[in-house]
Structure to design on (315 residues):
């Protein structure tokens, strides 16, 4: 089946990443205007003909999450009404992913709600990366391509293979991810048992694994306030760790998170540009996922397999 010429629309959430993706693909961004009315309603106008085209709309739903999500939905609706052949929503970061289950009385499953909204707006496919809960793929009745940032992070982490590294998950839920990283680096792994005090503060209780005299790599998919990383790093240093780094797919840092990173509790935070970051003067290394996303988009457009891109080594 002929899908049509590729068109890439970029939202306002992360234009730099969108433009980098277009550079790798070799196509200019599609002309689109995104404006705000005085009451902050979003207005979108696509200034090119996209009839019959294979349209990709790049917009992470990072803070302000509600504004960026609404803008994405409106862009999808505009593309559908402009007779796009197929619409792929490209979300390097999928917001609301932590609300993936009903773990308390009278709470929503917002990750499923977002899936419904994207599909109802007119998305025919989702391209995303490192979902907080992989089962969110099952919330969609459209194809989902789930990429892993580990393929980008591993290339950088190879530079530390000569160190006596131990990979640590900052909580029990990340043991599988820690095992993948440890297998790749040929390192031991362990985890930190923690207790969450509130949304931004965590108490690290104990460590499973001997970190004395070793360089530690904390691995996680997401950090905002850096509370989990901060508590884990503090405990690791008290147990004799000589160096503490963290590798995180999505650094959606708020003011508290930047403040904690600035305090120097980590020797280095290694992350991707899935969301915009202001890391000037901070020990943050940002790796680009633009080539990974661009390759996936090209393969989708050309009806090629994306499997090799979302295989996570060791899983």
């Amino acid at each position: 089946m002929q899908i049509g010429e590729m068109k890439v629309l970029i939202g306002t959430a992360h234009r730099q990443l969108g433009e980098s993706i277009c550079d790798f693909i070799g196509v200019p961004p599609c002309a689109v205007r995104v404006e705000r009315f005085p009451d902050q309603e979003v207005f979108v106008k696509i200034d090119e003909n996209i009839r019959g085209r294979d349209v990709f709309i790049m917009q992470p739903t990072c803070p302000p999450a509600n504004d960026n999500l609404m803008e994405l939905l409106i862009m999808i609706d505009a593309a559908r009404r402009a007779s796009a052949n197929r619409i792929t929503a490209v979300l390097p970061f999928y917001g609301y992913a932590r609300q993936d289950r009903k773990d308390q009385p009278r709470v929503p499953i917002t990750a499923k709600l977002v899936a419904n909204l994207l599909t109802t707006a007119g998305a025919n496919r989702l391209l995303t990366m490192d979902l907080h809960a992989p089962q969110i793929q099952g919330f969609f009745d459209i194809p989902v391509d789930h990429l892993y940032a580990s393929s980008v992070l591993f290339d950088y982490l190879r530079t530390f293979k000569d160190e006596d590294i131990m990979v640590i998950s900052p909580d029990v839920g990340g043991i599988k991810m820690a095992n993948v990283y440890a297998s790749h680096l040929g390192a031991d792994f362990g985890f930190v048992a923690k207790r969450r005090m509130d949304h931004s503060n965590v108490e690290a209780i104990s460590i499973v694994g001997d970190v004395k005299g070793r360089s530690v790599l904390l691995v996680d998919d997401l950090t905002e306030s850096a509370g989990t990383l901060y508590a884990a790093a503090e405990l690791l240093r008290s147990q004799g760790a000589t160096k503490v780094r963290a590798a995180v797919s999505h650094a959606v840092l708020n003011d508290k998170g930047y403040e904690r990173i600035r305090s120097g509790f980590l020797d280095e935070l290694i992350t991707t540009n899935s969301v915009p970051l202001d890391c000037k003067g901070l020990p943050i290394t940002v790796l680009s996922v633009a080539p990974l996303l661009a390759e996936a988009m090209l393969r989708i457009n050309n009806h090629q397999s994306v499997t090799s891109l979302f295989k996570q080594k060791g899983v």
User: Anything to note?
Assistant: The first strand starts at residue 6 and ends at 10. The chain has a mean pLDDT of 92. Residues 167 and 189 are 5 Å apart (CA to CA). Residues 151-287 form a domain with the Rossmann fold fold (CATH 3.40.50.2020).
